[in-house]
């Protein structure tokens, strides 16, 4: 061929093929670099031709075919492919350069792959949920923690709109605001059927390669933290309320007596003042005991305890109260129960509370009965306190061990209760690594079963 003239058909074909592959690559993610290289190759080819290098038709054609094939393999993702031409071939230096570029690309792709794997591992192992939203609020990435926090059972939420997957307009509106105004927003989310679960979502804007702003949402389960805060607030409110009533009564009677110290009712008023003072003292004592148990600062005298002897002592103390209420307080504890390892004072307090409750919540003519159970391997024994009393509604059963919780507040208060007895019971049992079961039916009675260990060291 006479150089410097027109492009020969094969050269045109080669340049066109390279340009076509480059065009295809342009549309692939991260394909712009490869496309650029191909376009450069096509450009150099054309230039070489125009510069008039003399090449043998057959050699050139064969080299171009090789170059084309290699480029096609790169285009299909095989970055290991290399092109090797004859050293004499004028396109050899070009092939050499292309191989070098392929090597760099291969390493970059590998690094990118490693970065991606690392990111996926981090995201998968995070306790916090992460969701990345593209422009238009479609989900572009979501980790496993977010799937479980938002209870998403859709196997493939990627690409779906937020409302299709989380179905919460509040969250949608917060996301829309973030992508519209570029601000960071914190928003709580709870499943419709359970508002005890609280997921705190922090949503921040992120720049997207195309379109407007996207958003990244970081979700954290704050349910227990919120519950603790709520309990603390309830606790302060409850203590204040419990103290307010006796204080008001004491203040009222004291003022009346100050106005007229010779009043006929003076002895009765003093009696009421004394009762309310006692109530407050008991409340403060119970609160202090609970607090010491919670902070493990209560001295515990660990020793072997004979529960039959201990409970008989407690029963004797309460017999008069049961009799006064017209109740039969019976016991079927065997003379020789396996010993349990624990603190006798705390265990007395535990059974005193349970038996006193059984008496308190059983109307006249009813009965309270104490017996025992032993588990098959003899490692635990249980003391069962049954009454034929008013029973506990099923919706209250899970709450009766909470501080100040009373099914019937007025009735409990009238009989001098503070609502702390079962909270103390629960703590004493926890301290002994035991457990308690409750069965109850309204109008029929209740059954409290306390399991304690018969092995030394289990209690500590
Ligand atoms: N044997 C029982 N039968 C029926 N209700 C019971 C029984 N034991 C407990 N309860 C219910 O559980 C609530 C909590 O009991 P808890 O012993 O903690 O408080 P309390 O008896 O009201 O006051 P106190 O602090 O003086 O014991 C009671 O108010 C009562 O409603
Ligand atoms: Mg009680």
Give structural notes.
With 460 residues, this protein is α+β, with helices and mostly antiparallel strands. It has four domains: 9-121, no CATH class; 126-221, PAS domain (Beta-Lactamase), CATH 3.30.450.20; 227-294, Orthogonal Bundle (Helix Hairpins), CATH 1.10.287; 303-453, 2-Layer Sandwich (Heat Shock Protein 90), CATH 3.30.565. The chain has helices at residues 9-26, 32-51, 57-75, 92-125, 144-149, 162-165, 169-181, 223-259, 266-294, 307-324, 344-360, 394-397, 409-414, 421-431; strands at 129-133, 139-142, 185-189, 199-207, 213-221, 303-305, 328-331, 340-342, 367-374, 380-387, 435-441, 445-453. Strands 2-1-5-4-3 form a five-stranded antiparallel sheet. The longest helix is centred in the middle third of the chain and has 37 residues, at 223-259. It is elongated, with a radius of gyration of 41 Å. The site of magnesium ion has 5 residues, from α11.
Q: What is the number of independent domains?
A: 4
SSE string, helices as H and strands as E: HHHHEEHHHEEEHHEHEEHEEHHHEE
In angstroms, what is the radius of gyration?
41 Å
Reported by name, the CATH topology of the largest domain is Heat Shock Protein 90
Average pLDDT number: 87
CATH superfamily of the largest domain: Histidine kinase-like ATPase, C-terminal domain
Distance between the termini: 99 Å
Q: Helix fraction? A: 40-55%
For the secondary structure, the number of strands is: 12
Instruction: Just name the CATH architecture of the largest domain.
Output: 2-Layer Sandwich
Q: Give me the number of helical elements.
A: 14
Sketch the major β-sheet: 5 strands, antiparallel
Bound molecules: adenosine-5'-triphosphate, magnesium ion
């Amino acid at each position: 061929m006479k150089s410097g003239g027109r492009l020969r058909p094969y050269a045109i074909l080669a340049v066109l093929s390279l340009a076509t592959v480059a065009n295809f690559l342009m549309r692939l993610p991260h394909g712009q670099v490869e496309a650029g290289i191909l376009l450069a190759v096509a450009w150099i080819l054309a230039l070489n031709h125009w510069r008039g290098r003399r090449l043998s038709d057959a050699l050139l054609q064969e080299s171009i075919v090789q170059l084309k094939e290699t480029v096609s393999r790169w285009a299909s993702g095989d970055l290991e492919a290399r092109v090797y031409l004859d050293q004499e071939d004028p396109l050899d230096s070009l092939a050499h350069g292309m191989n070098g570029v392929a090597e760099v690309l291969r390493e970059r792709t590998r690094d990118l792959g490693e970065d991606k794997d690392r990111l996926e591992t981090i995201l998968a192992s995070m306790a916090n949920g992460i969701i990345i939203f593209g422009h238009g609020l479609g989900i572009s990435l979501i980790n496993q923690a977010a799937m479980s926090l938002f209870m998403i059972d859709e196997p493939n939420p990627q690409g779906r709109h937020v409302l299709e997957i989380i179905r919460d307009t509040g969250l949608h509106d917060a996301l829309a605001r973030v992508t519209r105004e570029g601000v960071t927003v914190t928003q709580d989310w709870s499943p419709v059927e359970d508002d005890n679960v609280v997921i705190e979502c922090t949503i921040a804007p992120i720049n997207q390669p195309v379109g407007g702003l996207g958003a990244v949402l970081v979700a954290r389960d704050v349910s227990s933290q919120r519950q603790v805060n709520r309990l603390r607030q309830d606790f302060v409110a409850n203590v204040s309320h419990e103290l307010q009533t006796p204080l008001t009564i004491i203040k009222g009677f004291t003022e009346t007596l100050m106005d007229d110290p010779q009043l006929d009712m003076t002895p009765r008023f003093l009696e009421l003042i004394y009762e309310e003072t006692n109530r407050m003292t008991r409340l403060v004592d119970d609160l202090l005991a609970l607090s010491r148990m919670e902070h493990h600062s209560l001295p515990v005298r660990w020793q072997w305890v004979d529960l039959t002897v201990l409970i008989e002592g407690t029963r004797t103390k309460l017999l008069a109260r049961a009799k006064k209420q017209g109740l039969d307080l019976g016991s079927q504890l065997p003379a020789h129960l396996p010993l349990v390892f624990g603190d006798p004072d705390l265990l007395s307090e535990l059974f005193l509370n349970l038996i006193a409750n059984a008496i308190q919540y059983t109307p006249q003519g009813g009965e309270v009965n104490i017996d025992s159970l032993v588990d098959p391997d003899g490692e635990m024994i249980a003391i069962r306190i049954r009454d034929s009393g008013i029973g506990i509604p099923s919706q209250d059963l899970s709450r009766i061990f909470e501080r100040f919780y009373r099914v019937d507040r007025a009735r409990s208060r009238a009989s001098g209760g503070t609502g702390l007895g079962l909270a103390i019971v629960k703590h004493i049992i926890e301290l002994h690594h035991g457990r308690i079961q409750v069965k109850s039916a309204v109008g029929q009675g209740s059954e409290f079963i306390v399991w304690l260990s018969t092995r030394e060291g289990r209690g500590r």
